[in-house]
Amino acid sequence: MEETRRRRNARGQGELLREEIVTAAVRMLDELADDEALSLRAVARAVSIAATSVYLHFHDRDALVLAAMQRCHEELVGTGDAAAEVAPDPAAALRARILAQAGWARAHPGLYKVLHESKVHRRHGMPFKEVMVARTTEAVQRCMDAGLAPAGDAATVAIDLRTAVNGMLAQRINEPDLPWPPAVEQLDRFLVKLVGLRL
């Protein structure tokens, strides 16, 4: 019989255990780069709890993967926000946001892969990802309003840009041996060709 090897959280601190479970899942997903390979039993072992304790917080693996991906997405958005906040103008802010996203993906290739290619995503969707779309659209619109990019439909331009950036990052993760140009140069070309920035 599997026994816990940790002290129980004090009454009312179940949320702390939930966060520990999500943290362990995030770490394991980054290593596995595949949500289907994640085992709730392995997550329980990593947190030193009985497997049944995981089910008190997540009814199945999909629910845990979604919680882990929501945390990752919030971190990814926050990284972009922090980079954009210190930029001197809207064009520099959009570029900083995109470069920050690329940097996060390079640092966490497994998580980025699961975030964009997971089977959980296909089964349930990840509505929290709309935040990134909104942030990119707002950033493109600010460039247009400041005269730093041609006027147009900011939402369409943002989707084109996100498609290019996500595709480029996914390909670099999945096909690392291709003769890739420097990432910054490629991202700058996207900003020039798709948004119309003059860098």
Commentary on this structure:
Residues 1-6 have low confidence and may be disordered. The radius of gyration is 20 Å and the shape is elongated. The termini are far apart. It has 199 residues and is mainly α. The chain has helices at 14-32, 40-47, 51-54, 61-85, 90-107, 109-117, 119-124, 130-145, 154-174, 183-195. Helix 9 packs antiparallel against helix 10 (183-195). The protein is built from ten helices and no strands.
Summarize the model shown.
With 199 residues, the protein is an all-alpha fold.
The SSE order reads HHHHHHHHHH
C-alpha termini separation: 63 Å
Beta-strand percentage? under 5%
Radius of gyration: 20 Å
Q: What is the overall number of helices?
A: 10
Number of strands: 0
Main sheet overview: none
Shape call: elongated
Low-confidence stretches: 1-6
User: What's the overall average pLDDT, rounded?
Assistant: 92
Helix content: 55-70%
Q: Which structural category do the helix and sheet elements fall into?
A: mainly alpha
What keyword list fits this structure?
single chain, 199 residues, mainly alpha, 10 helices, 70% helix
Secondary structure blueprint with pairings:
Layout: H1 14-32, H2 40-47, H3 51-54, H4 61-85, H5 90-107, H6 109-117, H7 119-124, H8 130-145, H9 154-174, H10 183-195
Helix pairs in contact: 1-2, 1-4, 1-6, 4-5, 5-6, 5-8, 5-10, 6-9, 8-9, 9-10
